[in-house]
Amino acid sequence: MRRITLIPGDGIGPEVTAAARAIVEASGATVAFEEVVAGQRAEREHGTPLPRPVFDSIEVTKIALKGPTQTPFGGDYRVTIERNDVQAGGVARSYPSISIALRRELGLFVNVRPIKNYPGIPSRYEKVDLLIFRENSEDLYVGVERMVDEGTAEAIKIISERGTERVTRFALDYMQRLGRRRLTIGHKANVMKMTDGLFLKVAQSIAKGRSDILVDQRVVDALCMDLVMRPEDYDCLLLPNLYGDIVSDLAAGLVGGLGVAPGANFGTDYAIFEAVHGSAPDIAGKDVANPTASILSAVMMLRYIGETAAADRIAQALAQVLMEKHAVTPDLGGNAGTRAMTDAIIQKLRA
């Protein structure tokens, strides 16, 4: 029995992760979920949005299924981490969001987002099948910012050879396992000559030894233009942290939105799977949240732990429900609630 940490999160998080959990359990996968609290509820109850039990659980299971967590806009909000403070010399570490804190503390250096068309999901495009690799630990998202004076703020952009090398090797290995054949490196090395220039140079150097994969590059603004004109021309993308965040959300819009966009964060020792959409507090508790992205993230998780048959059954059952459109949530063109859509998928699994 494989144990999995479950982090419901904020807003609609508890609803969509409950849907994913119920479907995984109905699939026959030999897993057991261990639920821990993070986010706003944890901050109310424990004084921190990421209390120690979250890390204690993940350190044992090595894997988590996470719901969206809410981060305030602007201000001086920081997530302070108590984990391993003794080893850190008693200096608490803080981060600009829960997601960034988890990635940095657990060494989750790459975010993987599959973007593809699903039958029954309205979209302006057809034949989109992208795989986006986003470097997860560097760039402007390290959160090193300061006020220079009352009217000026600055942030430091960090790109390293080591960080670029490991994310490039991961992407190439991941592609090889899936039989993907083309990797496009996104960058802004024409302007950011040292940072993005280093990212491009290192990625190209690592890729030279892989004759089975075609590697090219595009300036990130031109890449965005191409994606909204000819998304079917691209296969896999490799980008630094900030561009990867923006481009992966843009790409989700090509196939129906963030509601159908799963994601995974990988490191050497741990992996966290989560939908890429936000916590949507305005619809929380109303039984209208679309659980598709959370379910697809769970499918990625099952494939990762070797539960391929269960993952295939869930993917097929979900595809049938999406195609039939009888029991899908309002954003997908139906009038079913979250629980009703979940039940419909479980019925397909048991048929």
Itemize the secondary structure elements and their pairings.
Elements: E1 2-7, H1 13-26, E2 31-35, H2 40-46, H3 52-61, E3 63-66, E4 79-81, E5 93-95, H4 98-106, E6 110-116, E7 129-135, E8 145-149, E9 152-155, H5 161-178, E10 182-187, H6 195-207, E11 214-219, H7 220-229, E12 236-239, H8 241-254, E13 264-266, E14 271-274, H9 292-304, H10 308-324, H11 338-350
Parallel strand pairs: 1-2, 1-3, 3-14, 7-12, 10-11, 10-12
Antiparallel strand pairs: 4-5, 6-7, 6-13, 8-9, 13-14
Question: What keywords describe this structure?
Answer:
single chain, 351 residues, alpha/beta, Isopropylmalate Dehydrogenase, 10-stranded mixed β-sheet, two-stranded antiparallel ribbon, 11 helices, 39% helix, globular
Structure description:
The chain is of the alpha/beta class and 351 residues long. The protein folds into two domains: 1-118 and 260-351, Isopropylmalate Dehydrogenase (3-Layer(aba) Sandwich); 124-254, Isopropylmalate Dehydrogenase. Helix content is 39%, strand content 19%. It has eleven helices and 14 strands. The chain has a ten-stranded mixed beta sheet with strand order 2-1-3-14-13-6-7-12-10-11, sandwiched between helices. It has a two-stranded antiparallel ribbon with strand order 4-5. A two-stranded antiparallel ribbon has the order 8-9. Helix 1 links the parallel strand 1 (2-7) and strand 2.
